Amino acid sequence: MQFTKAEAYGLWGLMYLAETNHSRIVPLSEVSENQDIPEKFLAKVFQALSRNGIIRSHRGVRGGFSLGRNPEEITLRQVVEAIQGPYHLMPCTEDKQACIMDPKKFCAIREVLILAEGELLSVFERFTLADLAQWQNAKVPPVTRLKV
Fold this sequence. Notes:
Elements: H1 5-19, H2 28-35, H3 39-51, E1 55-58, E2 64-67, H4 76-84, H5 91-94, H6 108-126, H7 129-138
Antiparallel strand pairs: 1-2
Protein backbone atom coordinates (compact mmCIF):
# COMPACT_ATOMS: atom_id res chain seq x y z
CA MET A 1 0.00 0.00 0.00
CA GLN A 2 1.27 3.42 -0.89
CA PHE A 3 -0.26 6.86 -0.55
CA THR A 4 -0.91 8.13 -4.08
CA LYS A 5 0.07 11.50 -5.53
CA ALA A 6 -3.62 12.27 -5.91
CA GLU A 7 -4.21 11.76 -2.18
CA ALA A 8 -1.14 13.80 -1.22
CA TYR A 9 -1.93 16.63 -3.63
CA GLY A 10 -5.56 16.64 -2.53
CA LEU A 11 -4.56 16.99 1.11
CA TRP A 12 -2.00 19.71 0.36
CA GLY A 13 -4.59 21.62 -1.65
CA LEU A 14 -7.19 21.25 1.09
CA MET A 15 -4.71 22.38 3.76
CA TYR A 16 -4.14 25.54 1.74
CA LEU A 17 -7.90 26.17 1.61
CA ALA A 18 -8.14 25.49 5.36
CA GLU A 19 -5.33 27.94 6.12
CA THR A 20 -7.08 30.75 4.24
CA ASN A 21 -10.42 32.26 5.16
CA HIS A 22 -12.69 29.17 4.99
CA SER A 23 -15.42 30.99 3.09
CA ARG A 24 -13.03 32.62 0.60
CA ILE A 25 -13.22 31.43 -3.00
CA VAL A 26 -9.66 30.56 -4.01
CA PRO A 27 -8.67 30.26 -7.68
CA LEU A 28 -7.25 26.86 -8.61
CA SER A 29 -4.16 28.58 -10.00
CA GLU A 30 -3.44 30.11 -6.58
CA VAL A 31 -3.65 26.74 -4.83
CA SER A 32 -1.52 25.12 -7.52
CA GLU A 33 1.15 27.81 -7.37
CA ASN A 34 1.32 28.03 -3.58
CA GLN A 35 1.45 24.28 -3.05
CA ASP A 36 3.63 23.55 -6.11
CA ILE A 37 1.09 21.10 -7.56
CA PRO A 38 0.50 20.70 -11.31
CA GLU A 39 -2.73 22.61 -12.00
CA LYS A 40 -4.29 20.04 -14.36
CA PHE A 41 -3.68 17.23 -11.86
CA LEU A 42 -5.08 19.33 -9.01
CA ALA A 43 -8.18 20.14 -11.09
CA LYS A 44 -8.97 16.42 -11.43
CA VAL A 45 -8.42 15.80 -7.72
CA PHE A 46 -10.57 18.81 -6.80
CA GLN A 47 -13.36 17.50 -9.07
CA ALA A 48 -13.51 14.32 -6.99
CA LEU A 49 -13.47 16.32 -3.75
CA SER A 50 -16.22 18.57 -5.09
CA ARG A 51 -18.41 15.60 -6.07
CA ASN A 52 -18.15 14.39 -2.48
CA GLY A 53 -19.01 17.76 -0.89
CA ILE A 54 -15.61 18.28 0.69
CA ILE A 55 -15.06 21.40 -1.38
CA ARG A 56 -17.35 23.65 -3.40
CA SER A 57 -16.66 24.62 -6.98
CA HIS A 58 -17.54 28.20 -7.95
CA ARG A 59 -17.87 29.17 -11.62
CA GLY A 60 -17.38 32.49 -13.29
CA VAL A 61 -14.82 35.27 -13.44
CA ARG A 62 -14.22 35.09 -9.69
CA GLY A 63 -14.52 31.33 -9.65
CA GLY A 64 -12.45 28.82 -7.78
CA PHE A 65 -12.87 26.58 -4.77
CA SER A 66 -13.83 26.84 -1.12
CA LEU A 67 -14.22 24.26 1.62
CA GLY A 68 -17.60 22.54 1.66
CA ARG A 69 -17.57 22.19 5.44
CA ASN A 70 -15.54 23.39 8.39
CA PRO A 71 -12.04 21.87 8.40
CA GLU A 72 -12.78 20.42 11.87
CA GLU A 73 -15.49 18.27 10.25
CA ILE A 74 -13.39 16.88 7.38
CA THR A 75 -11.46 13.74 8.32
CA LEU A 76 -8.42 12.40 6.53
CA ARG A 77 -10.44 9.26 5.79
CA GLN A 78 -13.17 11.27 4.06
CA VAL A 79 -10.59 12.97 1.86
CA VAL A 80 -8.73 9.80 0.94
CA GLU A 81 -11.92 7.91 0.17
CA ALA A 82 -13.36 10.82 -1.83
CA ILE A 83 -10.28 10.67 -4.04
CA GLN A 84 -9.63 6.91 -4.29
CA GLY A 85 -12.83 5.25 -3.11
CA PRO A 86 -13.11 2.86 -0.15
CA TYR A 87 -9.70 2.07 1.29
CA HIS A 88 -8.74 -1.61 1.27
CA LEU A 89 -5.31 -3.17 1.59
CA MET A 90 -6.39 -6.02 -0.69
CA PRO A 91 -9.66 -6.72 -2.50
CA CYS A 92 -10.31 -9.77 -0.31
CA THR A 93 -10.58 -7.65 2.86
CA GLU A 94 -13.81 -6.25 1.45
CA ASP A 95 -14.99 -9.32 -0.46
CA LYS A 96 -13.71 -12.79 0.48
CA GLN A 97 -14.66 -14.02 -2.99
CA ALA A 98 -11.93 -11.75 -4.41
CA CYS A 99 -9.27 -13.95 -2.80
CA ILE A 100 -6.40 -14.76 -5.14
CA MET A 101 -6.02 -18.17 -3.50
CA ASP A 102 -9.08 -20.17 -2.44
CA PRO A 103 -11.91 -17.98 -1.08
CA LYS A 104 -13.49 -21.03 0.60
CA LYS A 105 -10.47 -21.59 2.88
CA PHE A 106 -9.60 -19.74 6.05
CA CYS A 107 -6.79 -17.26 5.43
CA ALA A 108 -4.69 -15.96 8.34
CA ILE A 109 -3.16 -13.30 6.06
CA ARG A 110 -6.59 -11.91 5.25
CA GLU A 111 -7.47 -11.73 8.95
CA VAL A 112 -4.28 -9.75 9.73
CA LEU A 113 -4.94 -7.43 6.79
CA ILE A 114 -8.47 -6.78 8.04
CA LEU A 115 -7.04 -5.80 11.45
CA ALA A 116 -4.35 -3.60 9.88
CA GLU A 117 -6.89 -1.94 7.60
CA GLY A 118 -9.14 -1.21 10.57
CA GLU A 119 -6.27 0.41 12.49
CA LEU A 120 -5.23 2.51 9.50
CA LEU A 121 -8.77 3.69 8.86
CA SER A 122 -9.16 4.49 12.56
CA VAL A 123 -6.12 6.78 12.40
CA PHE A 124 -7.43 8.39 9.19
CA GLU A 125 -10.80 8.92 10.90
CA ARG A 126 -9.26 10.40 14.05
CA PHE A 127 -7.52 13.34 12.36
CA THR A 128 -9.13 16.27 10.57
CA LEU A 129 -8.10 18.77 7.98
CA ALA A 130 -7.93 21.36 10.80
CA ASP A 131 -5.42 19.14 12.63
CA LEU A 132 -3.22 18.85 9.55
CA ALA A 133 -3.31 22.58 8.84
CA GLN A 134 -2.51 23.41 12.47
CA TRP A 135 0.39 20.96 12.61
CA GLN A 136 1.73 22.20 9.29
CA ASN A 137 1.81 25.76 10.60
CA ALA A 138 3.41 24.68 13.89
CA LYS A 139 5.75 22.31 12.02
CA VAL A 140 5.23 19.58 14.62
CA PRO A 141 2.34 17.19 15.36
CA PRO A 142 1.02 17.03 18.93
CA VAL A 143 2.29 13.66 20.18
CA THR A 144 -0.59 13.38 22.67
CA ARG A 145 -3.04 12.72 19.81
CA LEU A 146 -0.86 10.09 18.15
CA LYS A 147 -2.05 7.16 20.27
CA VAL A 148 -1.90 4.31 17.79
